[in-house]
Sequence to fold (147 residues):
Amino acid sequence: MKKTTKWVDDFTMGTAQTDDRWSCKLRAPSWDCEWYWGLGYLGHRDAHFHLDVLMHTHHTNMYDAIKQEFGDTLTITDDKDLWTFCELMATAYKLKETAEVLGGGGANYTTNPVADTVKNETEAERINSVVLPAIFDAVDSLLAKYR
Fold:
């Protein structure tokens, strides 16, 4: 099944404070290499980083990391919307990883001795084709208020 989402336009998050103060865009999710969703890519013409890595860079949760990184240039100005954005994106990251484990039967360090028990291609397909696109569409609807 083809993996699609209504979210196709990149979204300007604000001006990154730790990256020479460039305007920073959040790239729309994409179905990459026919087996996983690429999501949370932030950047500009010269560099990029990832939304989930931003939390580790700032040693905090996604909400606070975004506030710290973009400061008063952040495009999502309503705190409730930012919390909702963070909830949706964090859920998407967790489900993306779950689908990868279920689809492959493990974490890919080595051959998983219980791969046959772990593997559930039907659920991985549902996550990738139904659940994640629904989350991405909800994010796109939220971001539409700020475009």
